[in-house]
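Q: Given only this backbone (168 positions), what sequence would you predict?
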């Protein structure tokens, strides 16, 4: 079974020249399980083969390697716009992918990330609001990465805020 990635900003990994090995575990997942199809008119459809990824005996180790690399990363080294935006978009996309692969209610993949709570169940925190994702020793929610960093005041003051950055 293949599910479409509605939350991916760009197909695959967003590249930047900083810390080339930082996203190696995430890149490995994308290389192995991301399916891209070119459409007429130069369009692109991306899907991720969750079932195949779940069958990978190295999945837990790959996810842990990426989580550890992000938890230990010094975000103070992100000085240029391209590198910073690429870093945060990749972090957001990795953490969402990890969420889908690791939190499976009743052992099943969710049909929508909203199944985790929020929109459908107001008594459960939305997956976007959970401060579960550690970057540089600091806890972030997906919403904080999107609205606090990529669309936040610091980026705006640097002229980096870009209306094309929408992750949901």
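A: Predicted residues:
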């Amino acid at each position: 079974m293949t599910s479409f990635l509605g939350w991916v900003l760009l197909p695959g990994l967003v590249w930047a020249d900083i810390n080339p090995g930082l996203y190696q575990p995430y890149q490995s997942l994308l290389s192995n399980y991301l399916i891209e199809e070119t459409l007429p008119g130069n369009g692109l459809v991306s899907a991720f083969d969750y079932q195949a990824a779940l069958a990978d005996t190295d999945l837990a180790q790959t996810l842990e390697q990426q989580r550890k690399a992000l938890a230990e990363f010094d975000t103070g080294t992100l000085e240029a716009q391209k590198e910073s935006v690429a870093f945060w978009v990749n972090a957001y996309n990795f953490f969402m992918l990890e969420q889908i692969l690791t939190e499976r209610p009743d052992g099943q993949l969710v049909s929508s990330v909203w199944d985790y709570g929020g929109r459908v169940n107001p008594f459960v925190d939305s997956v976007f609001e959970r401060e579960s994702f550690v970057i540089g020793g600091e806890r972030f929610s997906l919403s904080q990465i999107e609205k606090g960093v990529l669309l936040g005041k610091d980026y705006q003051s640097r002229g980096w805020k870009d209306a094309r950055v929408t992750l949901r």
